[in-house]
Design brief:
Number of helices: 16
Distance between the termini: 35 Å
Strand content: under 5%
Number of strands: 2
Radius of gyration: 20 Å
């Protein structure tokens, strides 16, 4: 039996693996239900506006969040019982700063779907989600995998039920986004309550933020590179194309996104495994998880593509043009699975040079989205595939990870 197959089976048999999988898949499944509901009621144009707001909010959230939960997790593995509140403060400060810049852009030079009203929605959702993700990741690593489920899955189910019923009764894009903002803020408060109850969160004196920001920089920059590839496509398409094309691409991305989330489970395992296995074995563990992620994503792609053809052809015919972008993004998800897991492992062993190279390479590759957006949803999907394939040699493999792990021991 191959190591990738053994790794996949161990994930399936692990209770923690199922909690992580549920905590990831349930929100994504809930999001997919919302996508189908809003698409059926509001059509491609309405769906396009919603997708642009939510996709850009995710981009701002990740860029501003700067993976500050990673050093908070790493400090626990290094023996610290505390979580420095500076990490949470920095998360809020950076996201609010990016929100302000985006709003200024929307006021001074509105572009495509970016306008003052959409910028306000983006700002609120980005801040709420950044704080929620920080709390979720810290609790998952410091308390238990159940916390990831409690913050990820439970609010998602309740929010989706409310949103789906609401959009059927009140089929209006603006009203839908107002409710979405309110639910995001409620989830943020729920996550903060759990964080303060279960983790010793306090300010480390003297109150300095630069050292904490420096510790997060390598992983934070690599995650910005990843999210530019994952969400930059939708944002650039919204800035350069029409609501209809954004709506079509959003449908394709929502279906393919289920495959991307499978890889995220293995990436979380790679982060959790650091400190739980001998350092000299860590590279082999991450490499096995990366292969397992590729296998799992590939196995999930075939049925999802088949189901998407039926849904888009017979249930949502207005979105039938989204089928071929879905196929292309499904292939891209397989390549992304490998890089996502390895990048997580690189962050834990402080492979700073490799992560900086990965971040810079991803940002440069994202320039492909600019000409691709002229060809609509399919053009951007093809650009995504090219970018994900190019990221594989940039991030490296087991050898690079082993050298980085050895360097972190010395």
């Amino acid at each position: 039996m191959s190591t990738s197959t053994r790794g996949l089976r161990s994930m399936v048999r692990s209770r923690g693996g199922w909690l992580l999988l549920t905590g990831l898949v349930v929100p994504r499944a809930a999001s997919t239900v919302s996508v189908f509901a809003t698409s059926a009621v509001l059509g491609p144009d309405g769906r396009g506006v919603i997708a642009f707001v939510l996709g850009t909010a995710t981009l701002v959230m990740t860029a501003g969040g700067f993976a500050l939960f990673i050093p908070a997790v790493r400090e626990r593995q290094e023996g610290s019982a505390l979580v420095a509140r500076q990490y949470l403060d920095l998360t809020v400060f950076l996201v609010v700063g990016l929100d302000a810049l985006l709003f200024l852009w929307a006021v001074l030079a509105p572009t495509g779907l970016l306008a003052p009203d959409t910028a306000v929605f983006i700002a609120i959702i980005a801040l709420a989600n950044a704080v929620t993700v920080f709390a979720q990741r810290v609790l998952q690593a410091r308390v238990s995998d159940y916390e990831y489920f409690a913050i990820g899955a439970l609010p998602a189910i309740a929010s989706t039920l409310v949103l789906v019923v609401f959009v059927v009764i009140v089929p209006d894009v603006t009203d839908y986004l107002i409710l979405y903002c309110a639910l995001s803020l409620a989830t943020m408060l729920w996550a903060l309550v759990r964080l303060r109850q279960r983790v010793d969160l306090r300010v480390i004196r003297p109150y300095a933020v630069v050292p904490h920001l420096r510790r997060a920089a390598p992983t934070g920059l690599s995650m910005i590179g990843s999210i530019l590839v994952l969400r930059g496509d939708l944002t650039i398409l919204g800035l350069r194309s029409t609501e209809d094309q954004v709506g079509q691409y959003s449908m394709a991305g929502s279906i393919a996104g289920l495959m991307f989330l499978v890889a995220e489970v293995f990436a979380l395992r790679a982060v959790s495994a650091h400190g739980a296995v001998p350092t000299e074995s860590y590279a082999a563990v991450v490499a096995g998880l990366a292969r397992s992620a590729v296998l799992a994503v590939a196995l999930s792609a075939v049925p999802l593509v088949g189901v998407s053809w039926v849904v888009l052809t017979y249930l949502l015919p207005d979105f039938q043009p989204a089928f071929w972008p879905t196929v292309v993004l499904a292939v891209a998800a397989v390549a992304s699975a490998y890089t996502r897991v390895v990048a997580g492992g690189m962050g834990m062993v402080k492979a700073n040079r490799r992560l900086y190279r990965y971040a810079v390479g991803s940002v440069v590759l994202c320039l492909l989205y600019l000409p691709a957006a002229a060809y609509g949803a399919l053009g951007v999907a093809v650009a995504s595939l090219v970018i994900y394939l190019a990221q594989v040699p940039i991030i490296g493999g087991r050898g690079a990870l082993a050298r980085a792990a050895a360097g972190s021991r010395s």
